[in-house]
Design goal:
It holds the Pfam family EPSP_synthase. InterPro entries: Enolpyruvate_Tfrase_dom, Enolpyruvate_Tfrase_sf, MurA_subfamily, RNA3'P_cycl/enolpyr_Trfase_a/b, UDP_GlcNAc_COvinyl_MurA. GO terms for molecular function: UDP-N-acetylglucosamine 1-carboxyvinyltransferase activity. The relative contact order is 0.15. By secondary structure, the protein is of the alpha/beta class. Strand 10 (170-175), helix 7 and strand 11 form a beta-alpha-beta unit. It has 15 helices and 24 strands. It has 2 domains: 1-36 and 250-436, UDP-n-acetylglucosamine1-carboxyvinyl-transferase, Chain, CATH 3.65.10.10; 39-247, Enolpyruvate transferase domain (UDP-n-acetylglucosamine1-carboxyvinyl-transferase, Chain, Alpha-beta prism). It has a 4-stranded mixed β-sheet with strand order 22-23-1-24. A 4-stranded mixed β-sheet has the order 2-15-17-16, with helices on one face. A 4-stranded mixed β-sheet has the order 4-5-3-14, covered by helices on one side. Residues 1-15 have low confidence and may be disordered. It has helices spanning 3-13, 39-48, 65-77, 102-105, 113-122, 142-150, 181-191, 207-218, 252-265, 280-289, 327-335, 354-360, 390-402, 413-416, 422-427; strands spanning 20-25, 29-34, 56-59, 80-84, 87-91, 99-100, 124-127, 154-158, 161-165, 170-175, 195-201, 222-224, 230-234, 244-247, 267-272, 292-295, 299-304, 313-315, 340-344, 364-368, 371-375, 384-386, 405-410, 432-436. The radius of gyration is 22 Å and the shape is globular. Bound molecules: uridine-diphosphate-N-acetylglucosamine and phosphoenolpyruvate (PEP).
């Protein structure tokens, strides 16, 4: 990144709560680590909790910025909440607001899910700004809107606001031209109390969607087909009025990031509380490159004791394909592997913002449109780098662990959106990291 752009970013961030992570490398990683609950499951589940008739108790909720923001929104809507020791207690019985103000809508991508959930509850909802989240592409919401319209919901768009109203959500079929994760979740949330049945064709199959469906079913919803391309939601009159305990699934992207960190730095780590099946695509890539991997029921062991082989062609895909959320960390892995590796990003059009920063650290990666061509180098060197999105930040974090000397990641708050106490957790594996302002 050139100096003018750096100065612009620093200038824009002055006065905000800018966080730095300072890493002394290189380091090997050794030990055991417990994987936290999945951000992308916890966020829709917390949002869905407003549909319950009494308090819900949700366990294994990661203590990350996006979760704290979601809880703030729930409070604003009128829910009573408590969040401690990774357990969220949400009592939605006094919920009264049906409008999400702009400061909350902008906080994260998943604020869009309040559209479906609040509409289900009040038959009206207003989101007064487009959702925020990682700037990794255009990220339109046209599929959310057009799907709602197909269910008989009136949607009005004005002054950046989206307002939806209906007397009831009508049963029927919705076909998604793209298996969008967020649109699938929003349709599910909107349809819990529908007339008859809503069928989603070409639904997204990500495990986090299945987790949302399991949570809703536990509360009394009738959803079938979660984890497949056809999801059927039979409308119910109301959800149960009893305390429920729900345990969020482990975060496959956080687990994948640890795997990438070991595959980059070297060492030997046992990941606990994972679902190995959710990690198939990344495990396959790392095994082919030369990592030693053993899988057990809810654990994965990884060892890297020699330089990895590149020469792979990797393409991001919808689940169960290789996830776009691990594309950036995998770029770091292959930046120091032997040979040339090609990574094609098919889901988001601007998701290589970490590449110029990795190149500042000595990597040789060339981006042409949606393809990154990685020429593996022997080693990386530490310097000051800018995280511009969550997973790009994770890629720089891993690069900092293996680089020689000091790496300073400016704008680490991007990383805090999705990784719980990252410096503390990696320090238990031997990394030297501190946080500064
Ligand atoms: C909070 C959350 O769960 N975020 C995840 C979710 O994001 P998110 O739900 O935003 O991602 P989507 O699956 O919706 O996006 C997939 C593709 O569909 C396009 N699209 C989406 C909606 C729409 O109305 N119109 C449209 O064209 C997007 O621009 C993108 O190219 O899935 C992504 C893809 O696995 C992950 O990277 C994100 O981590
Ligand atoms: C893109 C991501 O998050 P979000 O959709 O919340 O911006 C992510 O988790 O990598």
């Amino acid at each position: 990144m050139n100096k003018i752009i750096c100065d612009t970013i620093v200038g824009a961030l002055q006065g905000t709560n800018m966080q730095k992570l300072i890493i002394e490398g290189p380091t090997f990683l050794y030990g055991e680590i417990e994987i936290e609950g999945a951000k992308n499951a916890a966020l829709p589940i917390l949002t869905a909790s407003i549909l319950a008739e009494g308090q819900v108790i949700i366990k294994n909720v990661p203590d990350i910025a996006d979760v704290r923001h979601t809880i703030e929104i729930l409070e604003y809507l009128g829910c009573k909440t408590r969040f401690e020791d990774n357990i969220a207690y949400i009592d939605p019985t006094s919920i009264k607001n049906f409008t999400i103000p702009p400061q909350y809508a902008k906080m994260m991508r998943s604020s869009i899910l309040f559209l479906g959930a609040i509409l289900s509850k009040f038959k009206k909802v207003r989101l007064t700004n487009h959702p925020g989240g990682c700037e990794i592409g255009q990220r339109p919401i046209d599929l959310h809107i057009s799907s709602f319209a197909q269910l008989g919901i009136d949607v009005f768009e004005y002054d950046n606001t989206i307002e939806c109203r209906c007397d009831s959500v009508k049963g029927g079929e919705v076909f998604l031209p793209i298996p969008s994760v967020g649109a699938t979740e929003n349709i599910i949330l909107a349809s819990v109390f529908c007339d008859g049945e809503v069928i989603i064709r070409n639904a997204a199959k990500e495990p986090e969607i299945a987790d949302l469906c399991h949570f809703l079913n536990k509360l009394g919803a009738r959803i079938k087909g979660a984890g497949t391309h056809t999801i059927k939601i039979e409308g119910v009159k109301r959800l149960r009025n009893e305390v429920e305990h729900y345990i969020v699934i482990p975060d496959r992207i956080v687990a994948g990031t640890y795997l990438c960190a070991v595959a980059t730095c070297g060492g030997e780590v046992l990941l606990k509380n994972v679902f190995p099946r959710h990690l198939d695509s990344i495990l396959h890539i790392l095994k082919s490159a030369g990592c030693k991997i053993k899988e057990q029921r809810d654990m994965v062991y990884i060892k890297k004791d020699r330089r990895l082989k590149g020469n792979q062609k990797i393409t991001t895909h919808y689940y169960p394909g290789f996830p776009t959320d691990l594309q950036a960390p995998v770029c770091t892995v292959f930046s120091i592997a032997e040979g040339v590796t090609i990574i094609k990003e098919t889901i988001f059009e601007s998701r290589f913002k970490h590449v110029p920063e990795l190149n500042k650290m000595g990597a040789q990666i060339h981006v042409e449109k949606d393809i990154a061509i990685i020429n593996g180098v022997e080693k990386l060197r530490g310097c000051q780098v800018f995280a511009q999105d969550l997973r790009g930040g994770a890629a720089l974090f891993i690069a900092g662990l293996c680089a020689e000397g000091k790496t300073e990641i400016v704008t680490a708050e991007h990383i805090d959106r999705g990784y719980e106490r990252i410096e503390e957790k990696y320090s238990t594996l031997g990394a030297k990291i501190r946080r500064g302002q």
